[in-house]
Amino acid sequence: MRTNPTNTGLLSTFESYQSFFPLDHFTDGMTHMAEILNAVQALTGKPIGEVSMKELIDCYVMHNASSNIKGKLVQLTFETTPYEPCTKPMSLLAKITISKLCYNTRHEGKYIFLRLITSLEKTGTVFAIAEDEHQRAIPVQLFNQTSLPGNEGLEIYSAFVVKEPLVELVGWGEVGIRVDHASDLKCISRYNEDLLVMWKKSTNDNRTVDQWKGVASELYKSGLYAQAVECYSKALEYPLTPESIQTMKYHRAQALYKLGKFEKAEMDLANLAPDMKSYDAALYRKARTLYDLRRYRDSSQALTILCKKFPKNLQASRMLSESIKRCLEEKRGMYSFREIQNKALARKIVRLEYATYIGPIEVRPASVTGRGLFSTHDIKAGDLLLCEKAMAYFSEQDASNRMICRGYRVGMDRATAMPLARVELVNEMVRELCLKPSWMGNFMNMYHDTYKSTLPSFRTDDGEALVDSFLVHKVMLHNMLHSDTSTRDSYMRRSAPGQGLFEEERSDFEVAQEPPCGVWRMASFANHSCLHNAQHSFIGDLLIMRATKDIPAGTEILIRYRERATDFLKASTWNPFEDRGFSCTCDLCSSIDSTDERVLRLREAVLVDLRSFIEIVFVERQGKVEVRDLMLKLSTLLATYKDSDPSLPRLSVFEIKYAITQIFDEGGLPYNAAGLALECFTSFGYIITGAISTENQLDSGPLLIRRWGMLDYRLVKCWLILARCYRLKAPHLERAAREYAMLFYKMIVGEEQTFRSTCRKMRL
Ligand SMILES: C[S@@+](CC[C@H](N)C(=O)[O-])C[C@H]1O[C@@H](n2cnc3c(N)ncnc32)[C@H](O)[C@@H]1O
Q: pTM value?
């Protein structure tokens, strides 16, 4: 196909026009792309060779041909060195055309004027072929902006400008323009006076104001909101009466609202005159916009005026009651969690309309890790610390709507690979920031390690958000949390009867690949500790954080970014936070790190042996129950902890004791089960008084936790086993055990309102 690869700048070695690979050819793909990268390194600074438009379009079509199987493929794209978005106004930039572009160069002080000659391929990144005014073609690849409404109008034959274009390898390995920052690409309105005559085609821009209005309204009805905004803006350029201006702005605000540009919509709806036409509709739109901007007080105020003036407006009164609920949630943390769970379940929605409540916590400098969250008051175990809407979120549903398989990766530093969930989360964050530039201040304050952004402002000269996507990437990396779509569902799945006695471990790779994940601004100030004192859980994109022990005022609130699954691996072998540049140094991790490696290997071996012993003897019933044998193995396991602090959790011991607890419980041995359930608590560092653990024990109660230990979802079942045993043998303790079960469920799942129904469903 290639006639003269050296002249064209395309590589003769690469003929498959591929950036999508089957997952099992991932390594080959990486090698392949790295070879192309290496080969073009020497061309840096040289003018790019010419590729005919036909050849580029043929390659583009071949590249797209596999769309129907892309759901099974990974996409590899080339990584680049971070650079900041262009901050210069257009007036300070000089025009450049494709023939003057050079390899691996950012053309500072320049802009290029292009129009698309293919549609946008949106499977992974956004990719298309464009031409300049001399009809020379070049591929263009947009990163970090898959679903940006600002680019909604970008379609075949759309004109656009790229500020300070960066020319590097793009797509399947062709030289092209890559755009990493949304603000570096500006769509040019088809009505722009500077648009080349030959690119204007049939557009008629000599319309009257009414014609502009008419076209805008038709475009709006057809769902072409970006174009509708353009036409309303055109109409607003004419001399109009104040009332007509307001009406026109109201219509434009509706189109902006549909694009998700709430801040701009709100600006168009400021100072509505009560005597304007469609005042009620405009005021409603304003209230709705404020609501979507999470400004619930302002929204309630607008709705109160509306309801007073138009008492029969049912939509407004419904909206007012919703706004008032949000205000109560925001101020007092009063949520109807049952309603939230039901809504999420019934409508399978993950982006929930609830307000953020910040409880008795605040951000303060932390001793070792920059800033952290601290308690402002004494807090009781189970208290609500935070209930927060995500700043950006990427759900399982979003992932299945994408055509690409989970393994989409960026990274051609020849070694790194970024999983789909993270790439998409960056896209989501960029989108949210572009839509809500007022969030930029808070965003810039989020932890981003040593990355320095020198941007002088958060806005471009024409008022758009100036988002540095490399900074977004850093913020994502350090602040993202992998979540469950519903922690309650995960809890039910993990504790369902019939699950194996031992949890299956999933690889870090698998976990890192998978959505859902998100960024929660306030929660992101919490530092990690395996010995946490707070737990976060999820209902859709709502993060709920509760205390998991009694916490005195002024204490740092620590959560677990990831659960530590084992206690036989040192940080040098198992560090899930390597990409965040830290390893946990809590007392548990330090104790494991300072344990002799031979002891840890013994711990692992005995644990594995005990697991299979239990499976064979108790589950498969293939051997005799040799209690002595079991006790011997257990004491060998316990001996591996002899040098560590007894208050520290002993994860391997817990695992075995919990398995046996379940076997006794299911085997109709309530006292044995209850005794072991109590030992499970001890293994996790709890001290409980007043419990009965043997059949002949007389003295008991009140049942109390004297020292809080490490929280684990399996402890809910331990409390329920105790409660069942006490129902028969010590009824005065049953209630307290049930209450603890409910408290532990609340700390794990985030709420207690579904406790009973969950227990019923799971026959717990
Ligand atoms: C979500 S931020 C937490 C807030 C952050 N400390 C700040 O100053 O804004 C996560 C980052 O904090 C640091 N961090 C959190 N927990 C840590 C720990 N236990 N030890 C060391 N660094 C930690 C890491 O750099 C991590 O990437």
A: 0.91
